[in-house]
Specification:
Keywords: Hydrolase, Nucleotide-binding, Signal. The chain is α/β, with parallel strands linked by helices and 467 residues long. 29% of the residues lie in helices and 29% in strands.
């Protein structure tokens, strides 16, 4: 006798709620179909369901996301970095208090030893015919951020070895919910032959029909839930083993929407607008935002970052502000709309030579016009860099291309090539290779939990409020 178990999954929604009614509709239809066939089906999420770019997630600090997962009848979820490092310790500690599903994350721990009741390294579920499936969760180890918030992420391979050893003795099938990224998933498959399935996320990779390594099937469904994944496991009860593993990702872009979910989102949107509607500041004049020109608001915001971090120099890209602000009352919702990024301030240490190279690179056309996606940035283009504690003079080549002519400190002296300077900027630039000198800095001091929009609110009240 053979039994089929169906695992439906989502990953990296990032609060793209325009897609969520399609997700719920698809899952309802799929689960109903599998039930009619007499098969077991479970629904899991691989993290980054929440992203504070959306007013609903911002207003409810992620708890609305949990409500939506409850209503969609999810069974197991793990956490992504957007749940883990964009909330205060208390907000994360209480995030899943009302979850109707199990939360598994084996490598996350509270530094004070007081763990949330909902946090488990793994869980076990039984199929209709009694097959026991163990689900382990792992999240990406951004400890530079986590530890500032009172958490620690342990090495994933150590935790995984412990969990797998325990589950081998009590389950028939082991599934890893991995918010680690594709390369880590591939390495896990090479090291842990007892893991049957790895469902991944974090790096937004799409594996339409899965990938097999060392008899482990790896799968993932891209980002924003344009696709929903399904893993089909066939267990042979006579042979007492898995005889088939399949993985598919289905494009649901044209799937019908669930009306009840749309109504829920509309109601949550209204409630979020009310929560975020409190006036923060009354502006005496409109705030002008321009991505490719120096503006007063960007200069003042950059000055605020420099003062807040006690850095020698600060720099911010103008693309972090998405829209103008009119004169009159400005609410936190308005500030969130203008600056929705989950970006924190960070201070790095650079020599004068390295700092000069950063300045030059940041003012090049291909940098300012870059349509960045990811690294916390939720805008359109990076925009022109603005500096505090540093005078940057530019000129233009005959072909119209701008170049840095001179850089000096406020007193007029040049940068000392060998001296170390503390530079405050957006944490965006500490990832990847946007500005390599910053990314390679051996000192990175992150300032949490305040986002850039919190500093924008401070700047508006300090410099632009009507007396």
């Amino acid at each position: 006798m053979q039994e089929r178990i169906h695992l439906f999954y989502t990953n990296d929604l990032h609060s793209n709620f325009t897609q969520w009614p399609r997700v719920v509709s698809f899952l309802k239809d799929a689960k109903s179909s599998r039930m009619a066939e007499g098969n077991t089906s479970w629904v899991v999420d691989i993290g980054d369901h929440m992203d504070r770019v959306h007013p609903i997630s911002e207003g409810f600090m992620g708890k609305a996301n949990v409500e939506l997962l409850n209503k969609a009848e999810y069974d197991v979820v793990t956490m992504g970095n957007n749940e883990g490092i964009t909330l205060s310790h208390d907000d994360l500690f209480n995030l899943y208090n009302d979850a109707a599903f199990q939360v598994v994350c084996a490598n996350l721990h509270s530094l004070d030893g007081d763990e949330p009741a909902w946090l488990k390294p793994f869980c076990t579920m039984s199929s209709i015919k009694g097959i026991k499936v163990g689900f382990i969760g792992l999240t990406a180890p951004f400890n530079d951020f986590y530890e500032l918030l009172g958490w620690h992420v342990s090495p994933q391979f150590d935790m995984l070895a412990t969990c797998v050893e325990e589950l081998k003795a009590s389950t028939d099938i082991i599934v890893l919910l991995s918010h680690l990224g594709l390369s880590e998933d591939q390495e896990i498959a090479r090291r842990f032959k007892d893991i049957d399935v790895i469902i991944g996320g974090h790096t937004h990779h799409l594996l339409r029909t899965g990938e097999n390594i060392n008899e482990t099937i790896i799968t993932a469904a891209g980002k924003h839930c344009s696709f929903i994944g399904e893993v089909i496991l066939t267990w042979d009860h006579d042979e007492g083993k898995l005889v088939s593993k399949e993985a598919y990702a289905t494009d649901i872009s044209n799937h019908a929407k669930d009306l009840q979910t749309e109504q829920t989102l509309h109601s949550l949107g209204e409630d979020a607008a009310s929560i975020l509607g409190e006036t923060v500041v009354h502006l005496q004049k409109p705030i002008v935002v321009q991505w490719f020109k120096h503006t007063e608001i960007m200069q003042e915001l950059t000055d605020t970052i420099k003062m807040w971090t006690n850095a020698d120099i600060a720099m911010l890209n103008s693309g972090v502000l998405l829209d103008q602000l009119p004169a009159g009352d400005v609410s936190y919702g308005d500030i969130h709309r203008v600056c929705p990024h989950p970006i924190n301030a960070c201070v790095v240490e650079l020599t004068g030579n390295e700092l000069l190279e950063v300045v030059r690179a940041s003012l090049k056309k291909d940098f300012t016009e870059l349509k960045l996606k990811g690294f916390g940035f939720r805008g359109e283009v990076l925009g022109r860099m603005v500096f505090a504690g540093l005078h940057v003079y530019t000129s233009f080549h005959d072909n119209g291309e701008e170049f840095v002519k001179e850089v000096s400190l406020p007193g007029g002296e040049s940068l000392d090539p060998q001296r170390t300077y503390r530079l405050a900027t957006a944490d965006t630039f500490t990832f990847g290779r946007l500005l390599p000198e910053i990314a390679k800095s051996t000192v990175k001091d992150y300032f949490l939990p305040e986002f850039l929009r919190d500093h924008l609110a401070t700047t508006l009240k300090r410099r632009f409020a009507k007396n």
